[in-house]
Amino acid sequence: MIEWIQRKLNPNYSIQLNESNGFVSGIVRFQLVTSRDELKQQAVRFTLTIQGDKGSQHASKEVVPADETNCWIGLHSHLLEDGSYVVEWSANDWRDRCKITVQNRGPLANGVRSALNRQRIKPFLIEPCEANLYELDNTDLAPWFDQADCQRRLDKMLQDGRVPEYLEGPFRQFLSQGWFEIENHVDPRLLRQLRVDMNEAAARGDSGFSLGSSQRLELLHLKYKSFWKLINYRPTQKLVDLLMQVPTNVCQVLGFVNGSQQDPHQDTVHLTAFPSGYMCGAWLALEDVQPDSGELIVYPGSHRWPAVLMNQFSLSKVSGEEWVDFGNTVVKRWDEMLKAKATKPLIYRPKAGSLLIWHDRLMHGGLLRTNMSLTRRSCVTHYFARGSLCFHDSTGLPGKVIHRGSRGPSVLERARWRNWSH
After folding, report:
1. Among 23, 163, 244, 294, which residue has the fewest nearby CB atoms (within 10 Å)?
2. Domain match, 181 and 252 both
3. Mean pLDDT of 11-31
4. What is the spatial distance between Cα 287 and Cα 346, in angstroms, rounded to a whole number?
């Protein structure tokens, strides 16, 4: 018994999953980790075995725990029946098991499952996620707003009551321009608390932030109750679910004190959905945005341009902070597209509380900050449709899913995350 307790309290290796509430969906990432410094740089044989309705499935690869971009095995959970499973895993002689509950429900999940079976995709994934592994060009699986008859489909959804009348204008703008805005979207009390907590995070040097920098603040939903409330904010959840016409989950939460000054880009290569199109971004203004602060810019209509993905180049997946090759190829292609189309950007200067929703292929970025004394406090969340696959084509990693409505971090857990963040 004493040996078992010591093993649990101080393991050589353990497993982390990319899901947060005990249920798994899409591509499950089993990440091998260790807290022992002497083991982090040592190669180890990592093995997973799962017993399913079609017998036992097995995967194995050699990994180094310090290499977080490669120290994982993925599972296409759509290829399992919904229900609970025991996953046995080992790292050399170290063995353990974990329990997962698979939950992929609804017509979208069924469509993904059929596509994976049609392509004879294997349950386990030991290589980086590649866009060309999936039928991203299959228009039959695309969301309604990416269909050729999207205007007629919207007419029918309005007629059937699946889209309320007050959203007809915003949704038609989304079809033609790839974005829409909802003013005064967030409750003023929540907005004030978000600003207070963001200021505290910045003052603490969260995520490496320093005064005046464009460094983004990460994982704020784990550190502050206000940001957890934001990703569970029912008006936003309802809005995004109505746009997708299926329930959604959050994948990423980013905070900005100052303008990002980011080059114009599409989100598709960073936050990749299968079927294509089932991801959208949401940009919330936490304060009135002033000229010269490094404002957000969008290129209306650019969501109808083709997606730029990694498989279009002889390009390795990005590891760590090595983005030079990515900039010389992918970013260069985006720049060439903008010059060829000669599309003028729209400079976005909203009032505090305004929410902007954009299509995953919409070109957008940040202007240069010409007045360094001005802030541009904002928060960006990204949403994936439940039933879709979520991964990062740029890095090859399966995406992390944040299940809205789950318990969320406790007071002690939030304090621990804040202490780890700087």
Report:
1. 23
2. yes
3. 89
4. 19
Last residue of a domain, one of 101, 127, 153: 127
Is residue 134 a part of any domain in this protein? Answer: no
- pLDDT over 80 (residue 4): no
Number of residues written out for the chain: 422
**Among 177, 391, 137, residue whose Cα is nearest residue 273:** 391
> Which residue among 79, 101, 127 closes a domain?
127
pLDDT digits (tens, 9 = 90+) for 236-250: 999 999 999 999 999
Quick one: 181 and 230 in the same domain?
yes
Whether residue 161 sits in one domain with residue 17: no
Indicate whether 106 and 147 sit together in one domain: no
Nearest-angstrom CA–CA distance, 312 and 245: 31
Query: Contact, 144 vs 275, CB < 8 A?
Result: no
Examine residue 132 and state whether it is found in any structural domain, yes or no. Answer: no
Q: In the structure, what pLDDT confidence band is assigned to residue 321 with cuts at 50, 70 and 90?
A: confident
Q: Which domain holds residue 119?
A: 2-127
- Between CA 180 and CA 253 the distance in angstroms is 20
Give the Cα separation of 260 and 377 in Å (integer).
10
Distance between CA 384 and CA 266 in Å, rounded? Answer: 15
Q: What percent of the chain has pLDDT over 90?
A: 86
Q: Using an 8 Å Cβ cutoff, are 275 and 138 in contact? A: yes
CA distance linking residue 51 with residue 362, whole number of Å: 42
**What tokens appear for 46 in the block?**
């990592």
Counting the structural domains of the chain, the total is 2
What three-state secondary structure class fits 33? strand
| Structure letter (DSSP) for residue 369 | B
Burial bucket for residue 76 (CB in 10 Å: 0-12, 13-18, 19+): buried
Same domain, 143 and 122: no
| pLDDT score of 3 more than 60 | no
Tokens 């957890």 -> residue: 228
pLDDT in tens, 101-136: 999 999 999 999 999 999 999 999 999 999 999 999
What's the CATH code of the domain at 279?
2.60.120.620
Q: For the whole prediction, is pTM greater than 0.85?
A: yes
